[in-house]
Amino acid sequence: PVLSDLREGKRTVLMVRGLALSAAEDRALLLRASGNPDASYQHLAEVRAILERSGARQATEQMASQQMNLALTALGELTLSSEVRIKLRQLVHYSIERAS
What we know:
mainly alpha
């Protein structure tokens, strides 16, 4: 759950990018909310807005898409049974869809 990640202060790729791309005032808010066990859904909404306006969300989604394409290309180069290849492709797609 996203709120528990925020409360625990998990340094996800999205949060790290948000800290790097945000203006000073927004970065301070991200730092106050991250790792705050009392962070609320209001804090979460503010964090999401910052991650959106800073471009961190878009940059992270772009990186995930690039990594997915690399993984799918690598799968195409491996000698695998069709059943294993299908399952691994499903896993790659699931990983990206789950993160969205």
